[in-house]
C-alpha cells in the first residue's frame, strides 16, 4: 500500500479532496459517537485504519486532520491520536456523520466572516438597520420563551447584521452560504431544542449580547460577542457534555 498521495484523473489531490476521505471521516466519527472510545482514549493507529478501511495513509491522515480541525480529536506527536471531545449520540438524529465535517467548516468560516461583520454593523448601522436587527432579535426572544428557536429566525438575525455593514460582499456571502447555514442551524437548533430549556436560554442570551453590543455602537464587543456565540455553537455540536447544561 502506497504512502503517497494519489492524483485523480482531473489532477486533484485524492488525499485532500476525496470521497474515500469523506467515507473514512464518517466511519471514524460513527465509532466515536457509538461510544466505542471514551474521551481521552487513543484511537487505532493510521496503519490500523488503513487495514480496516482498505485505504492509503494519506486518506486516513486527511480524515483525522478534519476531525482534529473540528476539535473532536487531537494528535500528540510520538503518541498517536486521542479523543478530545465526543459529540452527542443524538447527532445522528439530525445529520449523517459524513456530513458533519461540512457543517463544522461552515461554522468555522462564519466565525471569521460574521465576527468582522458584527464589528462593522456596530460602527455603521443606521436607525433602520438597528430596527431590523431589533425586530429579528425580538422574534428570536419570543420563540425562546416557548422553548424553541427556528432556523429561519436565527438566519434572519444574522442576515440583518450583515446587511447593517452596508457592504455588499458581506450580504452576498451570507446569501452564498445560506443553504449550508440553514443545514447547520437545523442540526444545531434541533439538538438544542431536544436537549433542555437551559441550553435554549443560553443561545438566546448570546444573541442578546450581540444585539446590545451593536446597539451600543461597540465594534470590539460586537465582534467578540459574535465570535463567542458561533464558537459556543460549534462546541455545542462537538461536545456531548453541553447536553448536561455545562
TrEMBL record:
<protein>
    <submittedName>
        <fullName>FadR family transcriptional regulator</fullName>
    </submittedName>
</protein>
<dbReference type="InterPro" id="IPR036390">
    <property type="entry name" value="WH_DNA-bd_sf"/>
</dbReference>
<feature type="region of interest" description="Disordered">
    <location>
        <begin position="1"/>
        <end position="20"/>
    </location>
</feature>
<feature type="domain" description="HTH gntR-type">
    <location>
        <begin position="18"/>
        <end position="86"/>
    </location>
</feature>
<dbReference type="InterPro" id="IPR000524">
    <property type="entry name" value="Tscrpt_reg_HTH_GntR"/>
</dbReference>
<keyword id="KW-0238">DNA-binding</keyword>
<dbReference type="InterPro" id="IPR036388">
    <property type="entry name" value="WH-like_DNA-bd_sf"/>
</dbReference>
<dbReference type="Pfam" id="PF07729">
    <property type="entry name" value="FCD"/>
</dbReference>
<feature type="compositionally biased region" description="Polar residues">
    <location>
        <begin position="1"/>
        <end position="19"/>
    </location>
</feature>
<keyword id="KW-0804">Transcription</keyword>
<dbReference type="Pfam" id="PF00392">
    <property type="entry name" value="GntR"/>
</dbReference>
<dbReference type="InterPro" id="IPR008920">
    <property type="entry name" value="TF_FadR/GntR_C"/>
</dbReference>
<dbReference type="InterPro" id="IPR011711">
    <property type="entry name" value="GntR_C"/>
</dbReference>
<keyword id="KW-0805">Transcription regulation</keyword>
Amino acid at each position: 500500500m502506497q504512502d503517497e498521495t494519489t492524483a485523480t484523473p482531473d489532477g486533484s489531490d485524492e488525499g485532500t479532496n476525496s470521497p474515500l476521505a469523506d467515507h473514512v471521516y464518517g466511519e471514524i466519527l460513527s465509532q466515536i459517537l457509538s461510544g466505542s472510545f471514551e474521551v481521552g482514549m487513543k484511537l487505532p493507529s493510521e496503519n490500523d485504519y488503513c487495514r480496516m478501511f482498505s485505504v492509503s495513509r494519506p486518506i486516513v491522515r486527511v480524515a483525522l486532520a478534519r476531525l482534529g480541525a473540528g476539535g473532536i480529536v487531537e494528535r500528540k506527536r510520538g503518541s498517536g491520536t486521542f479523543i478530545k471531545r465526543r459529540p452527542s449520540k443524538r447527532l445522528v438524529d439530525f445529520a449523517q456523520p459524513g456530513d458533519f465535517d461540512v457543517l463544522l467548516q461552515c461554522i468555522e468560516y462564519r466565525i471569521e466572516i460574521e465576527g468582522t461583520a458584527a464589528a462593522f454593523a456596530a460602527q455603521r448601522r443606521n436607525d433602520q438597520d438597528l430596527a431590523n436587527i431589533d425586530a429579528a432579535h425580538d422574534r428570536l426572544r419570543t420563540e425562546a420563551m416557548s422553548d424553541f428557536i427556528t432556523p429561519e429566525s436565527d438566519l434572519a438575525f444574522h442576515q440583518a447584521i450583515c446587511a447593517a455593514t452596508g457592504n455588499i460582499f458581506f450580504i452576498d456571502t451570507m446569501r452564498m452560504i445560506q443553504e449550508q447555514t440553514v443545514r447547520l442551524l437545523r442540526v444545531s437548533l434541533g439538538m438544542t431544542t431536544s436537549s433542555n430549556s437551559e441550553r435554549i436560554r443560553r443561545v438566546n442570551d448570546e444573541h442578546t449580547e450581540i444585539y446590545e453590543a451593536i446597539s451600543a455602537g461597540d465594534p470590539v464587543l460586537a465582534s467578540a460577542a459574535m465570535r463567542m456565540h458561533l464558537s459556543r455553537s460549534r462546541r455545542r455540536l462537538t461536545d456531548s457534555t453541553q447536553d448536561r447544561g455545562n
